[in-house]
Amino acid sequence: MSKSDRERAEELTGIPRLEDLREVRRDMRFKLYIEVTIRSRSRGWVLGRTLEISEGGLSATLPVELPIGEAVELNLVLRIGHVNVRATVGSRNAFRHSFQFVEPNPGLHLIRENCCLLERIPNSGVRSRCTTLGLKQ
Predict the structure, then answer these.
(1) Domains and CATH numbers, the chain
(2) Distance between CA atoms of 46 and 67, rounded to whole angstroms?
(3) By C-alpha distance, which of 52, 62, 55, 47 is closest to 93?
(4) How far apart, in whole angstroms, are the C-alpha atoms of residue 66 and residue 97?
(5) Which of 39, 61, 66, 78 sits CB 3.0–4.6 Å from 73 for a disulfide?
(6) Distance between CA atoms of residues 71 and 4, nearest Å
(7) pTM value surpassing 0.85
């Protein structure tokens, strides 16, 4: 089936193509494997390990399950310094949790700087943010 046939089929059936259904990410993600300490109202202090980070949030594995939607405080030690940031538990798959950073948040400036430092793929949007922050590429 040619590309134009697939496009016509989508128009006729109203069923979107698979590539159109893929999740579009607002922020670029970076692998980051460091310890994170989480202060949770429901579980107290929890020690976990990050998997990925972006300007909008991070994912981590934890030894316990946190309630989705709970407001937490994340404590990280990055190359650029110690960061305390407020976040909410976004989703959970077994012991892998996603956290969305809450704005306004004083620690987000350091998170953004860290993401600029982790940037490996040329990207004009990230490069301009790094320049704005005074970071060299």
Answers:
(1) 27-132 (2.40.10.220)
(2) 13
(3) 62
(4) 8
(5) 39
(6) 47
(7) no
Structure tokens at 78: 């990055």
3-state secondary structure string, the chain? CCHHHHHHHHHHHCCCCHHHHCCCCCCCCEECCCEEEEEECCCEEEEEEEEEECCCEEEEECCCCCCCCCEEEEEEEECCEEEEEEEEEEEEECCEEEEEECCCCCCHHHHHHHHHHHCCCCCHHHHHHHHHCCCCC
Contact 21, 44 (CB under 8 A): no
Cα–Cα nearest to 107, from 134, 131, 74, 137: 74
Q: Which residue, chain included where needed, has tokens 């316990």?
A: 64
N- to C-terminal Cα distance for the chain?
A: 44
